[in-house]
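Figure 3 (text version): structure tokens given as input.
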């Protein structure tokens, strides 16, 4: 469970899972100070980090040697009718294009955050 707590500093919100904490803030253009991650940053970070982990799981299961996985992700919510997540997966190591493409396909298919985003979402109060 995640807890978000704010005080008097405009839009500064401390977010914790009970073990780690991060600062969340609105961007300056939205009235915040920009001193922390924005909520959209966190949404995009959840997707990018999950896709990164999923890629490494696939590489390990396929026994493909690699030195680094890098996921670059962006979120576009400018269209009110849809949200677009864009990503690039870079795999450092000696990996041919066919294997790279297969790894990316399996990582995209098995990323739990992507699976959550693909499902209908409901909101309830605790």
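Below: residues designed for each position.
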């Amino acid at each position: 469970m995640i807890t978000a707590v704010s005080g008097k500093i405009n839009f500064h919100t401390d977010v914790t899972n009970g073990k780690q904490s991060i600062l969340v803030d609105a961007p300056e253009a939205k009235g915040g100070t920009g001193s922390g991650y924005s909520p959209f940053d966190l949404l995009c970070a959840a997707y990018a980090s999950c896709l990164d982990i999923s890629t490494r799981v696939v590489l390990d299961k396929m026994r493909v040697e690699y030195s680094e996985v890098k996921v670059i992700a962006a979120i576009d919510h400018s269209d009110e009718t849809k949200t677009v997540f864009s990503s690039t997966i870079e795999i450092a190591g000696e990996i041919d294009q066919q294997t790279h493409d297969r790894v990316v396909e399996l990582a995209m298919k098995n990323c739990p955050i992507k699976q959550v985003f693909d499902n209908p979402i409901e909101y309830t109060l605790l």
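The chain has a mean pLDDT of 94.
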